[in-house]
Amino acid sequence: MHAHRAALLHCLADPREVGIEHSYQYFEDGLLLVEDGKIAQIGDAASLLPILPAGVKMTEHRDALIVPGFVDTHIHYPQVDVIASYGTQLLEWLETYTFPAEARFADPEHARAQARFFLAELLRNGTTTALVFATVHPQSVDAFFAEASRLDLRMIAGKVLMDRNAPDDLRDDAASGYDESKTLIERWHGKGRLHYAVTPRFAPTSTPEQLELAGRLLREYPGLYLHTHLSENRAEIEWVKELFPERQHYLDVYDHHRLLGARSVFAHGIHLCDDECRRLGASGSAVAFCPTSNLFLGSGLFDLARLEGHGVRVGLGTDVGGGTSFSQLQSLNEAYKVLQLQGQQLDPFKALYLATLGGARALYLDEHIGNLQPGKDADFVVLDYKATPLLARRLEQARSLKEKLFALMILGDDRAVKETFAAGRSVHRRDRPQP
């Protein structure tokens, strides 16, 4: 058992459902007890210190706030090297930057080096669980899962399925994509804290035959994820109409092949009709809100209130490398602005929910992660109130927890993450090299 003493904050429910005041739990001077990689107990230090078993190791985190590990519901690990690339929107972005970068993952050594850097960067930003795109190459998935397994992380990933409208060296075919995915599923799904996602890139790069086989994988292996893109860019939507004229709309392409349901996550969902929103909500599917990439690529503004009004589960995604930061604090910074432009306000406690428990619920993992309730995985982050002079000065002026949390999400970034824990083990500390 290990005890961590600091201010503690976590979400208990969606503020939209229960109201802000009932949605979170906060301990100004709290104690978090960890045992065997799980959270054993949480509460006021004054109440728990007298009853701690003898010999329990204690770590005091001064001027710090402990929150659950951040959850990233959409990100591309092969795109790290093209982050901050200038001047294109989605379809040109793929041709100019993404496809050349992904072709390099035919080399297993490159894939291993990239996976190691990528996961270290996630942890440096306090993200302990992510739903991750690999490439069409099976070795890209092997490299990612091997590194995630070494660190005992709860991660979800899968081989990209892409059998048309892509460079020759990045295409599989319907049969080989199915067979390679089956091999990877049987090798990695359920190993430790790893989960597999069937991953057609998006409708334009898969034939109907490939999408049909993707649906077959989901039926053959219950518990898998489906991870793809949906309605990110208006030119993309028009392309889908040309390729699938028989389908009612973009989502209907996926629905026709039985790709909707629990653990199906669709990135972006910016330009949806009411029927698509209703169907996403009714099927239990989720949408990943990716504000930094939606702004950077000029894709559009995500309408959170509309999606949630239809009962759609929503998580937060960085979408690196179209996204501009691994930091979910920075994602929330931009999400606040995206919603402001539409006359919506992102309350700081709702923001924390989206980055933690909301993401866990979007991934159907809230039984394991998302808050600090006893029995959950001990995945948590220590945020430094004095990470930068400006942040420290602003927090000194804060008159409430809400104000303090809002300043953290607007001014915070990777520098605010003092330490990250996964399954109770320190996997990143600002003053220590990565493990």
From TrEMBL:
Cofactor entry: Zn(2+)
Enzyme Commission designation: 3.5.4.3
Keywords (A to Z) from UniProt: Hydrolase, Metal-binding, Zinc
Pfam families: Amidohydro_1
Keyword Zinc set for record: yes
Catalyzed reactions: guanine + H2O + H(+) = xanthine + NH4(+)
Pathway noted in the entry: Purine metabolism; guanine degradation; xanthine from guanine: step 1/1
InterPro entries in the cross-refs: Amidohydro-rel, Guanine_deaminase, Metal-dep_hydrolase_composite, Metal_Hydrolase, Metallo-dep_hydrolases
GO cellular component, one term: cytosol
Enzyme class: hydrolase
Cofactor, how bound (note): Binds 1 zinc ion per subunit.
Amidohydrolase-related domain location: 66-427
One GO biological process term: guanine catabolic process
Signal peptide segment: none
GO molecular function, one term: zinc ion binding
Entry-linked CDD domains: GDEase
Function: Catalyzes the hydrolytic deamination of guanine, producing xanthine and ammonia.
Family affiliation: Belongs to the metallo-dependent hydrolases superfamily. ATZ/TRZ family.
Protein name, per record: Guanine deaminase
Originating organism: Azotobacter beijerinckii
